Structures are given as C-alpha cells and as structure tokens.
Amino acid sequence: MSSSTSPSVSIPIPQNRVVLGLGTVSVDFLAAVTSYPNPDDKIRTTSLKVQGGGNVGNALTSAARLGLTARIISKVANDSQGRSILEELEADGVHTSFLVVSEGGISPFTYVIVDNKTHTRTCIHTPGSPPMVPGDLSRSSLLSALDGATIVYFDARLYETALVVAQEAARQNIPVLVDAERKREGLDDLLTFANYVVCSAKFPQEWTEAPSIPSALVSMLLRLPKLRFVIVTLGENGCIMLERITNETPDQLEEFEVDSLLEVIKGRKDKNINIPTSVSSPVAKLRAEGIGTVCGRLLLGTAEKIPESEILDTTGAGDAFIGAVLYGIHDFHFISSLMCQHATREVVAIFCPGGCWMLSGFGCSKRSSISYRSMLSIFLTINIC
Question: Which InterPro entries does its entry note (predicted)?
Fold first, then answer.
C-alpha cells in the first residue's frame, strides 16, 4: 500500500515505562566547516549551532520524545551553560530532579567540528568541574531515582557513581543497558551488570581480542553471563545483534560457525530495498573457533540508504540509536504485532535500524533533529502498512 493511501498508524504511549540514565551531559558548540582544517589553517564556519549534548542527554531526549518517562543522573555547575542544559532537557520532558548542580566550577562542554566534505565530526570535550562522585548522590535520592524504573542506561562515564547505581539496580532486578563506545576506566566492572549492550564497531574486538566481530560477540556473551543481547553498530552498514536464547534444548539445535553464518545472512539481504530491514538466523548453537559456543540467534539489521546530498553529519547518531533501542525493548510487543514477527526480540533488531533512520533526521543527528513519536507513526505507516 502506498504512503498516500495508507492509514496512519496510531502509536500508543507506553505505560509505566521509566528509563533512568546516568552519564554525561554537555553544551555542544557545533561548527560546520567546508573541510577539516590542516595545522595552522585559519578557516570560517559555514554554520554554528549551540545546543545540549552528551551521550546520556541525547539518548534520554530521544527516549522521552518517543514517549518513555526519562530520568537523568548527572552533574552540571550553576553557570549559564548548566542552566541551559537543564532547561533544554526539561523542555523535552526529561526529569532532572536527580541531576546534581554544584555552586562553583564549570559545566561540561564540547566543541564539535562537522566536516561537510567527509560527513564526519571531531569532538573536543572539556569535562565538568568538580566531577561527579558517589557522595553527590544520597541513598534516598538513589532509591527515589530507581523507584518504578524499568531499565537503567549507562553511557560508561562517571563510572564510580555508575557502579553504585548499577549495584542497586541489580539488587532490585532492574535491567541494565550499557553503551560501550571504547575501553574506559570502570567499564569492565559496569559490564558485569549489563543485560543489554550497544557498542561501537571497534569495541567488541578491542575488548575481547577476538579475530572478527561475530566471534567477539560470542566471546562477550560467554564472558558476561547476564547479557541477553549485544548490538554492534556499523554506521551505513547497519548493525549486528547476537541474542542469547535460553529456552531451547542445546542437543536439539544445529551448530554453525558464527563467521560463516553471518556471511550466509548477508547473502539473504535484499539489496533492492532501501528501507531498514533485518535478516535473522535460526536459533542455533553458534561456535566461535578457539572461543566457545553459545545458544542464540544472529541478526543483521540494514540501515537506510540515504543520498549523500542529504547527509549533513553523524553527531549523536549513536545516542539516537540507543534511544530507539530503549523504546524497542519496552514496546517490542506492539511493534512486533505491526511487523508480524513471531520472535519477540527480533523486533528490537528490526526496529533499531528503523529507529536510527527515524531519529537521525536523515543523517543530521544533532539533538534538534531527534524525532518525535509522530515520526515513528509516519515511518511505520509508510514501511509497514
């Protein structure tokens, strides 16, 4: 059915879906340039925008705009930048009552140089001062922040405080999602609490020293027994998800070498389809040579094929993607019914590439381009109905 005749898909607002996020917020100074400067160059910007940023700030903005209840734990100073950060988050419906405001110091800020030629961005971050420490979050505030939370998201910054929150979340059996961009102090400890991990393309192999991404994902599931799934984002190449399956009898499952299985899945992609799709392997025993075997399923999610002329930059695309993952985890039953999927978790892999396209503003993923629920309705109407 064409988009011109398709009825609009009504997206119900998820009930009792509370996301608590802990990590960095900042003010971003986004300077677009014709091309990245050489040493000692003097160049001019083609545009300049100042707005809120930071991984957890962007991801929670995305979750809130999709209809989840979002709460944030972070720290800013009582300066103009800190007040701007608070005002922008609150305007998007993110609850900031657990965000610590210091009377002195400076709020975090980031210079983002957007290269219009290569469609890349370079970030130069200045952390806030004084930094957040566990003592900034009282026991009563911690319990209040977690009250009713259905998932806790960490961007792997502020790790000392993050570990305190993760320990309490685990005690209360609240699922944890960790954003693993790169190796950081305290990340190994934080990952032991993770039920879900979203990581950058390079992280799995860097962390596990496995020879390939698929074998690294197997290694991660073996090393992290609480992990239900791990997603690795691959930019224009979409994403790969490895989901652990525990309700099957291993002896009855076929065994596949995981790298070979991924190549089979890639061969099943329909290259003529521009919209995001996913291709799933059967539930099987997935073997990584020299590493081990897990029972699970491998999924390949494709990305929207965006004309180069429409791509502005990728600032915050990963954060918008995580916002889609948070929504997909909460509302996969509804999305699943629309997409006629039989496996509950598969919808996350399907929804996330679509969510990344939807939330990324066609390649321009600054916070102002993170979309609202209405865009999700349009996306589902055009591509599903």
Answer: Carboh/pur_kinase_PfkB_CS (IPR002173), Ketohexokinase-related (IPR052562), PfkB_dom (IPR011611), Ribo/fructo_kinase (IPR002139), Ribokinase-like (IPR029056)
In-domain check, residue 58:
yes
Number of H helices, E strands in the chain: 11, 18
Give φ, ψ of 286 to 5 degrees: -105, 120
How many domains does one find in the chain? 1
- Rounded to whole angstroms, the Cα distance separating 326 from 352 reads 9
Scan for tokens 């609490």, then name that residue.
193
Q: Would you say residue 339 lies in a domain?
A: yes
Residue owning tokens 């396209």:
357
pLDDT one digit per residue (tens) for the chain, 385 residues:
333 444 445 555 556 789 999 999 999 999 999 999 999 999 999 999 898 889 999 999 989 988 899 999 999 999 999 999 999 999 999 999 999 999 989 999 999 998 988 888 899 999 999 999 999 999 999 999 999 999 999 999 999 999 999 999 999 999 999 999 999 999 999 999 999 999 999 999 999 999 999 999 999 999 999 999 999 988 878 889 999 998 877 778 999 999 999 999 998 887 777 767 778 899 999 999 999 999 999 999 887 776 666 665 555 677 878 888 898 887 654 443 333 332 333 333 334 433 343 333 333 445 555 555 555 554 444 444 3
Domain with 81, as residue range(s), is 18-35+46-383
Residue 3 lies in a domain: no
**Distance (Å, whole) CA 105 – CA 11:** 43
Could you tell me which of 247, 234, 242, 355 has the C-alpha nearest to residue 299? 242
For residue 296, the 8-state DSSP code is E
One-character DSSP codes across 186-252 = THHHHHTT-SEEEE-SSHHHHHH--SSHHHHHHHHHHH-TT-SEEEEE-GGG-EEEEEE--SS-GGG
pTM (two decimals):
0.83
The pair of three-digit structure tokens given for residue 21, joined into one six-digit string:
């996020």
Query: Is 108 part of a structural domain of the chain?
Result: yes
In this structure, is the dihedral angle defined by the CA atoms of residues 369, 336, 229 and 195, taken in order, positive or negative? positive
- CATH, residue 231: 3.40.1190.20
